[in-house]
Specification:
The chain has one domain (2-505). The protein has helices spanning 2-9, 18-50, 53-74, 77-83, 89-121, 125-133, 135-141, 144-152, 156-179, 185-206, 220-251, 253-266, 268-287, 292-319, 321-329, 336-346, 350-362, 366-387, 391-415, 423-450, 456-476, 479-505. α2 (18-50) runs antiparallel to α13 (268-287), α3 (53-74) packs across α12 (253-266) and α17 (350-362) crosses α19. With 506 residues, it is mainly α. It starts with a helix and ends with a helix.
Length: 506
């Protein structure tokens, strides 16, 4: 058992060819995320036609607190398993039982708090929804460490398959329930189906069975790391969800439903495409955390490529917001257009700040991240409080503006105290891609003013193709981004050659 456990938690095989493992992991991840993105778009499009904005708003009122509790359930303990250079079976077993205990405790707290949440919103249906979703925490707590083991081993092929299967299963459950008239319960069923399938598959993939609680395993330092990271996740999640919480209080279920759907759409790049890729980056950065020159080079290189590959999507969403709402959400969602544009503008900075945060965690600076997330919370609280004077739109405007012009610049400056980079390194990595993205957005907007097909789907395809071509031409005209494109193409070639080689070998 000891030998098998040692093999499970050893990552020495990654040290010699870390870049190779990372490239292959990104290849698996991007392929899986392409499928998940397709499923997500289909889900949003179909459910928007089967359900009412109020249904999404009701569940959104509850999921604000669900995500908050999830930060506690995970306890930062998965990253403790990933980030630690050496870890034992006994230590991970103790972390497993800690996650299970947290899941059970949070489920009970969630049930007990449901009458209070229902009273705050003036909506009694929330009690039954919260009681049902309490299962989410118990089931989720059973597989936190199994996912961490897969990430520690950089087994992102298994993680990708698990996420695709779980995503597809939950979407099928939601659409089937909505079709048969279950209303908002279809969204509840979607979440429970997702976590159940995901937890089951993680156990099968990790092939690890936890042992008993062992008091002498030396797990205290891991719990300390986890507590700081949990605090950071808690403050960060609360800061983000100040906005929907305030919208629900000020406007009720209808505008919150509009916000929830548009947020879901505009955050697809940051919530669907990037997190699995960031998991790869975080595991890779953790392996070079003690080598400052390699860490600096990796952070600058990855940040530059992240901006290059995400900025155009965000600016494209801003320019074509009305077309996207028409095609993806259908009639009855016209009021969502202005919210969509504001959130799409904010989505430009999300990949940048998220990558900076995972860089801090990868080097073990969870306490530094906790301090910054606390500052972020108070900035958001002040911004949303001021914005609420002008109603729901004022709240969303405050959310977007404070993110672009206050929170992101300050966070980048703050991060230089802990990462081996300077503010000029940040600028060198980020500014070229951002400028190219904004220039492309302006040209697309000018094109819309001159010509637009009557069919909104054709218009989206036309502007997407023209915008991508313009973005590529501008990117190739700048030395920094041209080098990034060459490296990205090299990664694609490496992944393709490995896949071809694997195919021939079989």
């Amino acid at each position: 058992m000891s030998t098998r456990a040692d093999r499970t938690f050893s990552n020495q095989h990654l040290e010699g060819n870390l870049k190779d493992h990372s490239v292959r992991s990104v290849g698996f991840t991007v392929s899986a995320q392409g499928l998940k993105l397709l499923f997500q778009v289909i889900s949003i499009t179909v459910l928007a036609r089967l359900l009412q904005p109020e249904d999404f708003g009701l569940v959104a009122m509850v999921t604000i607190f669900t995500g908050l509790a999830l930060a506690f359930m995970e306890g930062g303990l998965s990253m403790a398993t990933i980030q630690r250079q050496h870890i034992t079976h006994e230590q991970v077993s103790n972390l497993f039982w800690t996650n299970v205990g947290l899941g059970l405790l949070l489920g009970l707290i969630y049930i007990a708090a449901s009458p209070l949440v229902a009273w705050v919103y003036g909506e009694d249906r929330l009690i039954e929804i919260m009681c049902a979703l309490s299962l989410f925490f118990l089931i989720g707590g059973l597989s936190v460490q199994h996912e961490a083991i897969l990430k520690r081993q950089m087994n992102f092929r298994a993680i990708a398959v698990i996420e695709v299967v779980s995503n597809l299963t939950s979407i099928c459950v939601a659409i089937a329930m909505a079709w048969y008239g279950f209303g908002y319960w279809s969204l509840v069923g979607q979440q429970i189906a997702s976590i159940t399938m995901m937890s089951s598959l993680r156990w099968l993939a990790a092939r690890w069975v936890p042992g008993r609680i062992n008091r002498g395993s030396g797990v205290r330092s891991l719990l300390g790391f986890g507590m700081n990271l949990t605090g950071a996740n808690f403050m960060g999640y609360f800061a983000v969800n100040v906005t929907p919480f305030t919208i629900g209080l000020v406007g009720g279920a209808q505008p919150l439903g509009l916000y929830e759907r548009t947020f879901k759409l505009t955050s697809i790049p940051s919530s669907q495409l990037l997190p699995p890729v960031f998991n790869v980056f975080q595991s890779a950065l953790a392996r070079v955390a003690n080598d400052a020159p390699r860490l600096r080079t990796a952070i600058i290189s990855l940040a530059s490529k992240i901006v290059l590959t995400t900025t155009f999507v965000s600016l494209y969403m801003v320019v074509t917001a009305d077309l996207l709402v028409t095609v993806l959400l259908g009639k009855g969602w016209e009021e969502a257009v202005i919210i969509f544009q504001l959130l799409a503008t904010f989505s430009v900075v999300t990949p940048i700040t998220t990558f900076t945060a995972i860089s801090l965690v990868a080097i073990g600076e969870s306490r530094a991240l906790l301090k910054w997330k606390t500052v972020t919370f108070f900035i958001m609280l002040a911004a949303v409080g001021i914005g609420s004077i002008w109603g729901v739109i004022g709240i969303v405007v405050a959310h977007a503006i404070s993110g672009v012009f206050i929170r992101m610049p300050l966070f980048l400056l703050y991060s230089t105290r802990f990462l081996p980079i300077t503010i000029f390194d940040h600028m060198r990595a980020l500014v070229p891609g951002l400028l190219i993205g904004f220039a492309t957005g302006l040209m697309l907007y000018a094109l819309r003013m001159m010509y637009e097909p009557q069919n909104p789907l054709i218009a989206l395809l036309l502007f997407g193709a023209v915008g991508a071509a313009l973005y590529m031409v501008l990117s190739l005209s700048v030395r920094r981004t041209r080098m990034d494109i060459a490296e990205l193409l090299g990664y694609v070639q490496t992944i393709w050659m490995r896949k071809s080689g694997a195919g021939k070998s079989t």
